[in-house]
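As a warm-up, study this chain.
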Amino acid sequence: MSKKKKTVVETDADVILIGAGIMSATLGLLLKELDPSLSIEIYERLDIAAAESSDAWNNAGTGHSAFCELNYTPQKKDGSVDIKKAVQIAESFEVSKQFWAYFVEKNILSDPYLFIRNIPHLSFVWGKKNVEFLKTRFTSLQQCNLFKDMEYTEESAVIQEWSPLVMEGRSKKDKVAATKMDLGTDVNFGSLTREMFSYLSKQSNVTLHFNHEIRELDKVDNGDWKVTVKDLESRKKRNRCAKFVFIGAGGGSLPLLEKSDIPEGKGFGGFPVSGQWLKCTNEEVIARHHAKVYGKAAVGAPPMSVPHLDTRIINGKQALLFGPYAGFSTKFLKNGSFLDLPLSIKFNNIRPMVSAGLKNIDLTKYLIEQIRQSPEDRFEALKEYLPSAEFKDWELEYAGQRVQVIKKKKSGGGILEFGTEVVSAADGSIAALLGASPGASTAVSIMLDLLDRCFKDQLQTPEWQAKIKAMIPTYGQNLAENNELCEQTRKHTSAVLKLNSLVES
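Now compare it with the structure written out below.
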């Protein structure tokens, strides 16, 4: 049964954004640019923006463009490789770069070096079957101009040149292969998000509230949403009313979606997965690696656990991480509660969640094995990618929580989804973002999809169309099928975002 509608109350804001992560920042910036008169209120339960999934230490930092992530190009039973998802993600990241470049040109985002750097993206495999897969993948991707600059080699000497550390100490008998895209990037989504909110908070009719937690969401008679907010410092509650609400609270989105009680949110569940990194502490080793080197995930592993030896630029300093190692926690957020998972189980989603669990026994076994790993076990996994690694040079770093979406099927069962899912009410008055990778990198495309659902009439106006095309010149066009437009776009965004040189040692 749906909740009974409440009495009409006065509208306090046009938009309420829940969660101060990359998604809310992107949507807030989009909406304020499209309609400067909009009043926006932003609520975050922590004391700083981008402290959960958007923080640099809590995510991969890869500008996900499907250049090196092998899980975006699954192999079919006949041996061929499906590149559909890779093309979609690559195109979406080009949209994100255009959006960021627009705000750099307007001096809203100051120095792009603070949030994005050039880092080559490599895929690296060994063993006959994996080499055959990578070659097939490369050949398939070459059919799309988004990947035409990709290089492929099975020559150890070439791979040694591309990424010396992965070849040092490796047997010369090993059959190896690698691909490389120099256009790859490392993105500090924490820095980017905080700069976006810094700008937004200074705009008229925009307020940003930290240490505020959303307790209730209720639809009122005039179609607005009454949002009950608790100030965690004063412990006082107050009600705010908005025409549109966006739930962009990362792992915390599912419980809030359930509070909204919209029919479209019924049947969704969440499966939390935690992560850990091995962080290099030897500056000499860090200085010798300048790439994101992705491998193949273990059987049963979630996509967020694809192993990679990863150059990062965090707070202006170069770092080297390996992982992530997956784990399990009932928390939905790094700063969440162990009761998050059990409290999310409702009558309408218990069957999909049980069904998805039974169908993913391999994932459960994998997570148990990961939890039971000793430091020596983790180090052995590292040595597969970095044979010359020394135990003393690496320490454990905890990453963020991810909540994979469990979606209800028509049959009543459930399926575990690896990706992002926008759930919106039929009237477009509320929307929530669920899921994980490649979320942050494709945030702009995800939010454009949300606008099409929730601001459909405004989006069709000449004014909004013109403004969107100013922010994203290729809006409505297909880069994958237009080589000339793709080259022009990449040339422009690379120049504005200073992506013409590799990271300096």
